Amino acid sequence: MNILISGIHGFIGSNFIGALKDKHTLYGLDIVFPAKDGVVNTFSWRDIEPTSFPFQALPQFDAIIHLAGKAHDTKNQSVAQSYFDINTGLTQKIFDFFLESSAKKFIFFSSVKAAADSVVGNVLTEDVIPTPVGPYGESKIKAEEYIKEHFMFPTASIDEDQSLRLGKDKGRTAMNKQVYILRPCMIHGPGNKGNLNLLYNVVKKGIPWPLGDFDNRRSFTSIDNLCYVIEGLLNQDVPTGIYHMGDDEALSTNELIGIMCEAMGKKPHIWKMNKGLMEGCAGLGTLLHLPLNTERLRKLTENYVVSNAKIKAALGIDKMPVTAKEGLMKTIRSFEETK
């Protein structure tokens, strides 16, 4: 299978090369063009613009994986428009190319942040009405909307009025192609801790974690599980749709610290300081503009559990190949080995 991968030289793309190169022929689409083992050639974005048609100048691709995008800036220092230029604009460009190309499968990497900044209820499923907060999530949902405006997706409701459905489908493409919108939660793996970096540094320095009294649970995505899912989407006849992605087990911050300490051979230092006291300190921090404020405390202690039931059912599996703990141990140990 000839596969075109945008953003192929990033962390996720590099892992996909390792997972796919032995069974597929891989091409890149990126803003940098280093030679890389397993990649036949890396094209520029100009090569897929309409002015570069006809497509005969490019290989005949069987599948396209769209990874390229602007990552979530947790420090909020990025200009909002840049998210839309990159996350929405590049998606529109490569999806237009896909519709005109010979490729039969398109995998778009969106994010759970396109669905919700915070999870209402016990778990985040694909049925949620998207309510993104901030330019990162908003730009991702705009990209999703563009795809669904130009390609027939399964209706969310079996009770939807047929005439309304026909009206919505006007202008959409129905063909022998399959499109997958993948919404992973926080991805990590050897060489990339993702947003675990702050917590990792706290644990590494032996600084006590003062929020042990909060019992929150969060989902993570091991790069090994992600590669497994991508291979499944490429090789199996999976229906077009939106799929959330995460490991099978959600972990509390206390459990996460325990796993990090186990990987580093350290003893965990978790302080269970009174919830009310910590919330009061955070409120004071908001008034005095201190690092620990109410919003930061909420982010550190909130639940964000993502369901992977739909993607597992589509792939015909009961569980992911790697547990959340196994994936995290592998990630943390990789940093201990390279420090």
Automatic annotation (TrEMBL):
It comes from the Bacteria. InterPro entries: Epimerase_deHydtase, Lipid_A_modif_metabolic_enz, NAD(P)-bd_dom_sf. SUPFAM superfamilies: NAD(P)-binding Rossmann-fold domains. It holds the Pfam family Epimerase. Residues 3-149 form the NAD-dependent epimerase/dehydratase domain. Gene3D superfamilies: NAD(P)-binding Rossmann-like Domain. This is NAD-dependent epimerase/dehydratase family protein.
